[in-house]
């Protein structure tokens, strides 16, 4: 499953796109569905079926491959998993909690995008105009489940 840990929308991500392409469908929550629809002024996920876990029907995508899972979403997801329909790529905090609370997640992917205040996705640069970037020098899983990442300046 994929989700933004700080609650902020995540921009385009080639790793998420690759995972979604390899899966049988994409699973999202209602808030994520609305955010994606409004940010794109339409539905961009057309190659795969999208399942939206929701308490009600908020269908803005009547002609797209979007199915709304209402009622017992965990039971529907257990059925999908038991039928072996393939990998489901999940995105969104609500969806992540649903999967974890019901023992349905097999893998969690965490992508850290270091951003400095006032910058964009690639904000680890030295100053505003010198063009030097930072790269990962090392990354290590620590005993308590935390990850220590060391960045270094790219030297010309």
UniProtKB/TrEMBL annotation:
Pfam families the record matches: RibD_C
UniProt domain Bacterial bifunctional deaminase-reductase C-terminal: residue ranges: 44-124
GO molecular function, one term: 5-amino-6-(5-phosphoribosylamino)uracil reductase activity
UniProt cross-references to Gene3D superfamilies, sorted A to Z: Dihydrofolate Reductase, subunit A
InterPro entries: DHFR-like_dom_sf, RibDG_C
Protein name: Dihydrofolate reductase family protein
GO biological process: riboflavin biosynthetic process
Native organism taxonomy: Bacteria, Pseudomonadati, Bacteroidota, Bacteroidia, Bacteroidales
């Amino acid at each position: 499953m994929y989700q933004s840990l700080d609650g902020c929308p995540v921009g385009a991500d080639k790793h998420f796109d690759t995972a979604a392409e390899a899966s049988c469908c994409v699973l999202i929550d209602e808030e994520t569905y609305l955010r994606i629809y409004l940010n794109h002024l339409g539905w961009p996920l057309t190659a795969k079926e999208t399942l939206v876990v929701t308490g009600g029907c908020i269908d803005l995508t009547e002609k797209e491959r979007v199915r709304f899972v209402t009622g017992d979403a965990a039971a529907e997801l257990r059925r999908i998993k038991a039928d072996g329909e393939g990998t489901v790529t999940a995105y969104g905090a609500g969806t992540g909690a649903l999967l974890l609370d019901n023992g349905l997640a097999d893998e969690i992917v965490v992508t850290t995008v270091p951003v400095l205040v006032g910058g964009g996705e690639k904000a680890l640069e030295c100053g505003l105009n010198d063009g030097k970037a930072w790269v990962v020098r090392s990354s290590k899983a620590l005993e308590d489940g935390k990850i220590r990442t060391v960045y270094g300046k790219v030297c010309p």
